[in-house]
Structure formats: C-alpha cells, structure tokens
Design a protein that fits this description.
about 120 residues, mainly alpha, two-stranded antiparallel sheet, 2 strands, cytoplasm
Length: about 120
Amino acid sequence: MSNLIDLQFQIEKLQKQANEIKAKEFANTVQDILAKMQAFGITVKDLQSAKPARGGNGGRGKFAAGKAAKAVKSAKGPKKSAQPVAAKYRGPNGETWSGRGLTPKWLAALVAQGQSKDAFLIA
C-alpha cells in the first residue's frame, strides 16, 4: 500500500498532466465556443447580462442558457397568487383551521377526548 508521500507525488504528477491537457485544449475550446456563439447569434453582452444559474445546470458553467431559459420561464404561465383560505373549523378558544393540511393540536386533542370534529364546523 502506498504511503502519504507516494500519494502526494502521484497527485502532483496528475495535476501537472491535467494542466498540460487543459492548455492544449484551450484554443480548440475557445474556437468551439465562438462558433456556437456565431451560430446562435449570442454576443458577449448576452453572456454578461445572463443571470447566474441556480444549480442543476448539468455542469455547464455559471450562466443559464440565456434566451432558451427565458423562453421556458415565460411558457410556464402566470403565477397564482396565494389567497388565504376561509376558516372551516373554530375551537372553543377562538382558534381556527381551514381544514387543509395537518389537523391542529387543539382539534386533535378535542377529538381524542371523544368530541366530534363536525361539532366545530363553522356554519
């Protein structure tokens, strides 16, 4: 089994190899990016004004897909505004519950004591 010094030497060697590969591929990558920018009509200004992506971008870097991402967002439609729901149940101390979500503790305790949930319905 390798010791720490051997592992550190291997890490250093691999890091140098990675840097050499990166340097060799840099020019080709820049040319590829420029070709794609030209094909899609993307300008440097488009890239600078792009909002940073919120993760889940598949490792494509720090910016969202630009125009395509905006088109997807607008296709979703308008957001529904959160409207409060009218109370459906009222407790003996004035507590209220809409009937949605988990049963509140005050109502669960009263039902556990044998009272009917329907007894607390608001007319």
